[in-house]
Design brief:
Layout (H helix, E strand, L loop, with lengths): L1 H33 L32 E7 L4 H12 L1 H4 L3 E6 L2 H4 L10 E5 L1 H8 L6 E6 L2 E6 L7
Length: 160
């Protein structure tokens, strides 16, 4: 019986060491992810612009004076549809300073347009959104003050 007890003790010890090694590997992976690195060590690409980006040359709307909220939505992404519902649910309070950019062709964005009545809207290509606003992921919500991005997010700002 002592041989069986030693084998069981060795097995339990081995499982405990394996568990510790895997836990430490998981902790390291979480730290890398929070630090903005992918599993291969490459930086995770930014999908939203950094604060300080000048967007004053945008031809579809005047963003040079005052505060504007620029909302970018695509007709095919589920998070965009959720954000569109939130935007239209509180439309009266959000309309005055919100510009909604529908990403795609006019045919693709035609289903969204009727829901955005009363908002300043424009349909632009994904390439234009990336070139003018450095946005590579949607939905995107930018706070623009006097032609400069001061904040970016994937959610609408909280209204006071």
């Amino acid at each position: 019986m002592p041989g069986f007890a030693y084998a069981a003790l060795a097995l339990v010890g081995t499982v405990a060491v394996l568990n510790l090694v895997l836990t430490l590997a998981l902790a390291r992976r979480l730290r890398e992810t929070r630090a903005g690195h992918a599993h291969d060590g490459e930086p995770v690409p930014e999908v939203l612009p950094a604060a300080g980006l000048a967007v004053s040359g945008f031809a579809h709307a005047d963003l040079t004076a005052g505060r504007r909220t620029v909302v970018m939505l695509t007709p095919t992404c589920p998070p965009c549809q959720t954000l569109l519902e939130d935007l239209t649910a509180d439309a009266e309070r959000r309309r005055p300073d919100t510009l909604v950019l529908m990403i795609g062709t006019p045919e693709e964005t035609a289903v969204m347009a009727p829901r955005l009545t009363g908002f300043d809207t424009a349909t632009i290509s994904e390439q234009l959104a990336e070139r003018e606003f450095q946005v590579k992921g949607f939905p995107a919500v930018l706070s623009v003050v006097d032609g400069v991005v001061v904040d970016s997010s994937h959610q609408l700002p909280v209204l006071a």
